[in-house]
Each structure stands twice: as C-alpha cells, then as structure tokens.
Design a protein that fits this description.
About 45% of the residues lie in helices and about 20% in strands. It is built from ten helices and 13 strands. The strands form three sheets. The chain has an eight-stranded parallel beta barrel, surrounded by seven helices. Helix 1 links the parallel strand 1 and strand 2. The chain is globular, with a radius of gyration of 19 Å. InterPro entries: F420-G6PD/mer (IPR050564), Luciferase-like_dom (IPR011251), Luciferase-like_sf (IPR036661).
Length: about 300
C-alpha cells in the first residue's frame, strides 16, 4: 500500500509571498504529496486561520500539490455556503482538495463567540455533513433538521471532495462510518488506530454503505534534529504555546529525532492501515523541519 506524506508548513514568521512560493516549490520538488492546514476562528485567545481560505491560497501556489484541511470546524458554518466553497475549489483545482471535518472542542469559548452552543457541536456536525453529501450531487436538497433547515438548496454543478472525519470518541467513529470516506486520527496508538478503522468498516457496512470508508489518515506532531534532545525542544515549545498544556500530555504520540527515528515511529501505523500522514513538523529552523518531512516520505515509500 502506498502511503501519502504531507506537511503543515512550519512557522515562517514574516515570510512574504515569494518566500512561501519558494518553500512550496521546494516541497513539490522533494516529492511531498500534499500540504495540510488546520482551521480555527478564535482559538485560545484569538489564534486561527480559516481552513478553506488557507487551502485556496496554497492550491494557487502549486500546480501539483494537494491540500488536506484537517480538521475543519464545520459546526461553526452553515453547510450551504461551505458547499459553494468546496464546489468552487474543486473546479479551480480538480482532485486536489481533501476535507477533514471534526468538532474540535479544546477551547469551548471558540464556539461561544461564534454564537454556537458547544454542547450542540456534534449534532450540528452530523446534520451539516449529511447536507454536504447531498449538496455534492448538484441536485436540489430539502432538509428539516433543527440546526440547518433548507428548502430546495442547490449547488451546481456539484463537487467531488473526499471527506475524512476526525475525532476519537464513539460518536466520531459513527460519524466517519456514516458520512466519511475515511477517518482522521490524532494522538492514538497503532493498535487503537487499527481498532477504530475496523469499527468504521463494520458500522458502515451495517448502515448499508456500498463503499467502505478506507482513506484513513493520521495527524502527527513531530520534531526533527540531530538527536532526540535537540528535536524535542522546538516541538515541545510549539505545542505548549498552542495547547496551553504540558508537552508530557502529548509526548508518547509525538516522534522526535532524526527522519529515520520519525519514520520508524510511523511505520506501525502504515501496517495498521494508515494511508496518509499530515506531519506537523518543528525543528531549530523551518528548512530542517521541511527536509525532515521529505526524508520521512522517502523512507516510508522505500
């Protein structure tokens, strides 16, 4: 099985457009399969970058690289304009967009400032995903759900964007089985990864789906350096700044060291059925981080 390896760009500071173009071109030349972006509106005090806006920018910087959005906080948006955005991006960059959807929740205030009850985020996501799947056909859609009632909504000519569903809860697994083309994991062991993807297949079959979701992926924070100590330092600093939690809470799921070390850590996930990795790399400098991603890809596909 061929595994795709992509990356979220490390912090480029005040890099201008020319520098971003050069970084993307370098990743393209190194054979990296895709770029990855996150999605937040106002995360832990205002951080964020709209996932589909970011994806559109990166798709315009490359003629080949795909962009994976993971995870998009669909519950914060109405699914009809989201469907319009997906249709437009699908037309402008055919076959190069993948949408990962999750409910987030690390910062409940992010939902509150958007006028959404955090307790409703799962139900809103389920309803929105169901509508997205129907809107993708290009046919008129009517729905009487409590969160997004629509009448004769239509997005023409429709779109074909794979959807992965993220989350580790039982509800997220059911959501992936019902609406997803695969499941997107994070902070999980290879054994548990295999268990969850097996559950997704079983639940999808029980729902009567004729195509079993199998485009499973994993998001992985990782550190690169000459040794583990030098690799862990920039990784731990970045994660603690973003998540406002000690690195020890994430450490066992975050490989750090040489590219060979990181590839060895990831190989059991490939054996467990992972088809794509979104690496979130950190190193003493961005060039080392991105070179590490390219080398990990080479090692995993060797």
């Amino acid at each position: 099985m061929t595994v795709a390896v992509g990356t979220m760009l490390p912090d480029l500071g005040s890099a201008g457009l020319a520098e971003r173009r050069a970084v993307v071109a370098g990743l393209e030349a190194a054979g990296v399969d895709h770029l990855a972006v996150g999605d937040h509106v106002s995360f832990f005090g205002g951080q964020g970058f709209d996932g589909l806006v970011h994806a559109a920018h990166l798709l315009a910087l490359s003629d080949r690289l795909a962009v994976h959005v993971g995870v998009y906080l669909l519950a914060l948006r109405h699914p009809v304009p989201v469907a319009r955005q997906l249709a437009d991006l699908s037309a402008l960059a055919p076959g190069r967009l993948l949408l990962g959807v999750g409910i987030g929740g690390e910062d409940r205030h992010e939902y509150e400032v958007c006028g959404v009850d955090p307790a409703a985020r799962g139900a809103r996501t389920d309803e929105a995903l169901g509508l997205l799947r129907r809107l993708a056909t290009g046919q008129p859609v009517t729905g009487e759900g409590p969160h997004f009632p629509v009448s004769e909504a239509r997005i023409a000519p429709g779109f074909d964007v794979p959807i992965l569903v993220g989350g580790r809860s039982a509800a997220a697994v059911r959501r992936a089985a019902r609406y997803g083309d695969g499941w997107l994991g994070i902070w999980i062991s290879p054994r548990r990864f295999a268990e969850v993807t097996g559950q997704v297949a079983e639940l999808a079959a029980a729902d009567g789906r004729t195509t079993v979701p199998d485009r499973h992926g994993l998001q992985v924070w990782c550190g690169f350096g000459a040794d583990r100590e030098r690799a862990v330092l920039p990784l731990s600093r970045a994660m603690e700044a973003i998540y406002a939690a000690p690195f020890a809470a994430f450490e066992r799921y975050c490989p750090a060291g040489t590219p060979e070390d990181v590839a060895a850590f990831l190989h059991p996930y490939v054996e467990a059925g992972c088809r794509s990795f979104n690496l979130i790399p950190r190193a003493e400098d961005p060039a080392t981080a991105l070179a590490g991603v390219a080398e990990v890809r080479r090692l995993l596909q060797r």
